[in-house]
Amino acid sequence: MFEVLIDQFWSLTIAGIALGFIYVLISLGYTMVYGVLRMINFANSEIFMWGTFGTVITNRDIFHYTQTSEPAKGWKLALVLISALLMSMFVAALTAVFVEFVAYRRLRMKGTNRLATLISAIGISIALAELMRLLTDSRPVGSPRVLEKMILTEVWGANIRLDTVVTIIAAAIIYILLERFIQLSRMGKAIRAVSQNEDSAKLMGVNLNRVITVTFLVGGLATGAAGFFYITVFEYTKFNIGFTMGLAAFTAAVLGGIGNIRGAFLGGLSLGLLEVYASAVLGTQWKAVTVFIVLVLVLLFKPNGLFGEAVQQTRA
Amino acid sequence: MKLRNYWNLRDAGAQLWEGSNRKGRVTIALSAIVLVALLPFAGASFLATPIAAYDAVLVYPVGVFVLMALGLNIVVGKSGMLDLGYVAFFAIGAYTMALMGTLTSLNTWQIMPFGIAFAMVAGVLLGLPTLRLRGDYLAIVTLGFGEIVRLIALNSSWTKGPNGIANIPMPPDIGPLEFKLDDQKVFFWVVVVMILLTIWMIRRLSIRRPGRAWEAIRQDEDVAELLGVHTLKYKIWSFSLGAAVGGAAGVLYASKNLFIAPEMFTLNVSILILACVVFGGIGNIWGVVVGATILGYLPDRIRFISDARLLVFGIVLVVVMNFRPDGLLPRKKREKIGERAQARL
C-alpha cells in the first residue's frame, strides 16, 4: 500500500509542491474576498477558468504556436511566458472586477442577506462557465507546448522538471509580491482594516468601495496567475475545469484558516502535498475523499482552520 | 409605493387566506390542489416544453425540485444553517431504492421507509459532529459530505461505480393508476401527494416547539441557547427532517428514472436546490414552491434557445437576486430579524 509513496516520495513531494502553489494562488482569490466581504466568492473558480484561457490565447493566437511547433528558447521563451502570465492575470482580474460589479455591488449596497449574494454569485458563475462552453463548443482546448518539459537534474531519485521548477519559483515570487502588497502598501493596510472591522475602517476614512474592488482585482490577479501555471503544467483547459480546482482551492483556504493570506499559503501547500500522497497511497480516485475527511477533522478540532488563530486574531 | 404593493403577492395571498373562514379556506386549498393535479393535462397549451416530454418535466425536475427545496428549506430557511451538500441525502435515497429494488423483492413503497431512514441516519451522523460549526464552515463541511457520498458511489464496486445501477423496478400500480414511462401523470400525482405531506409536516412543526426552537436558533443561536433551547438537539432534528425529505425524493426519483449513476448527484444539484429556496423566498413555504417550480421548469421551457439556456438561467439568477434579494415571495418582515444581523457578522 505504501510502496509507491516510499519509492517515489521525493518526486511526489515536488509534484505536490507545484500543485500546492497553484492552489495557493487560487485560494488567495477566495481568502481575500472572504476577508473583506465575509462571503465565499463562488465565481472564483470561473475566474480561474477564464484565466487559463488567457494563456492559451497568448500562446496560440498572439504568438502563433501550434501543437507541432518547436518549444521556444532563450529570450523568445521568456517573452512568451511573461506575456502569457500577464495576459492570464489581466483576463482573470478583469473577470473578477466584472463579477464584483455585476453580482456583488448592488446587493452589498442594499445590505441584504448573505444568501441572496451567494445565489447571485452562483448565477454569475454559471453564466461565465456557460459562456465559455458556448465559445469553445464544449470541447477541451489544448495549449501548445511553449516551455519544454526537460529534466533538469535528479535529486534523491526524483526528476526535477523545468516546468515544475518554473511553477514553484514564479508562483512563490507572485505570492511574496502580493503578500508584501497587503502588508506594506497603503491599500493593503486598508484591505486589512476592512477585514478586521468594516465599520471602524469606514470611520477611519477608508473608501470601502474602492477597497472591495481592489480586493477582487488582486484576488483575480492571483487566480489568473494560477491559471497560467495550470496550463504550463497540464497543457489543456476546458470550460468546466474551474469546478474541481476551485473546490480544492477553497478547501485549501478553509484548511489554512479562511480570511488570512498566510493561511491560504500554508493551506494550499498542505493540500497539494496531501492530495499527491493520498493518491499514491489509496489511488487517485480516493484523493478527494481523503482531502474532505481531513478537512472535516481539522474543522472539528480547530474550527478556525489549521493556522487560523496563529496569524490573525479571531474576529468578534 | 403603489408598484411595490402590486408586487407584494405574498401579502395579497395572506390577506385572501386570513380573510376567509374555514369553509372558504378548504375551498381555496382544494381548488388549488385540483388545479395542480390537472397540470399534466395542460400539455398542449403555452406551458408545453419544446423538447422534453411535458409530463416528464413536471415530475423531474419540477416536482422533485419542489420536494427537495421544501426539505432543504427546513434546514436553510427555518433554522438558518447553510447546507451545500443536500444532494447527499437525495443520493442515499436513490441508492437505497436502486440496491434494494434490484437485490430484494421489495417494491418502491416498502423501500421508501428504508430510504427515509437511511437518509435520516446519515443526517444525524453528519450532524452530530459538524453542527457545532457555524455559517460558512458548516457550508463547506456539508459540501464535502455531499462530494464524499458521490465519490463513494463512484468508486465502490457494490454501487457498480461509474456505470450506475440499471433496471430499477417501477412502483407497483395503485389500484387503477398505472405507472408508465411514456405517460407520467401518476408519478406526478404521487409527487404532489408527497409535497402536500411535506408542507403539512412543516406547517405543523413550525407552530410547535421545534419550529419555535428553529426560529430562535436562526435569529440568534447564542441567545437561544441561553434561553434554554437545546440547540444541538433541534439542529439535528432540522437536519434529519430535511434529510428525510431528500431521501424520499431520491427513492421516488430512482424508481421513476429506472437508472441512476453517480454523475446525477453532483454539487450542482445541491446548489440548484439552494438556488430554488433563495430564489423563491427563503423560509416561506409558498415562495420555495414557486421558486423551485420556476427554476425546475425554466431550463426546459426555454430549450428553443437550446445551447444558451443555462447561460440565460445564470443571468436570471443574478438579475432576480439583484432586484428582489429576499426572493420572489419573501417571508414576513417579522421573521426577517436575524438575517440582517447575520449579514453583518
Question: Can you give a write-up of this model?
Answer:
The complex is a heterodimer of chains A (316) and B (345). Chain A has 316 residues and is mainly alpha-helical. Chain A has a single domain, classed as ABC transporter involved in vitamin B12 uptake, BtuC. Chain A is 75% helix and 4% strand. In chain A, the strands form two sheets. Chain A has a two-stranded antiparallel sheet with strand order 1-4. Chain A has a two-stranded antiparallel sheet with strand order 2-3. In chain A, α2 (9-37) packs across α7. Chain B is mostly helical and 345 residues long. Chain B is globular and about 55 Å long. The two termini of chain B are 31 Å apart. The relative contact order of chain B is 0.18. The mean pLDDT of chain B is 85. The chains are: A mainly alpha (316), B mainly alpha (345). The interface between A and B is large, with 45 and 48 residues.
Total number of helical segments of chain B?
A: 15
- Work out the radius of gyration of chain B: 20 Å
Strand order of the largest sheet of chain A: 1-4
Strand content of chain B: under 5%
Task: Quote the beta fraction of chain A.
Answer: under 5%
* Series of secondary-structure elements of chain B, N-terminal to C-terminal: HHHHHHHHHHHHHHH
CATH architectural group of chain A = Orthogonal Bundle
Approximate shape of chain A: globular
Using CB atoms under 8 Å apart, which protein chain pair has the greatest interface? A-B, 45 and 48 residues
Low-confidence stretches of chain A: 309-316
* SSE order of chain A: HHHHHEEEHHHHEHHHH
Number of helices of chain A: 13
| Fraction of helical residues of chain A | over 70%
Q: List the domain count of chain A as a whole number.
A: 1
What is the β-strand count of chain A? Answer: 4
Please identify the structural class of chain B as seen in this structure: mainly alpha
- For the termini of chain A, the CA-CA separation is 46 Å
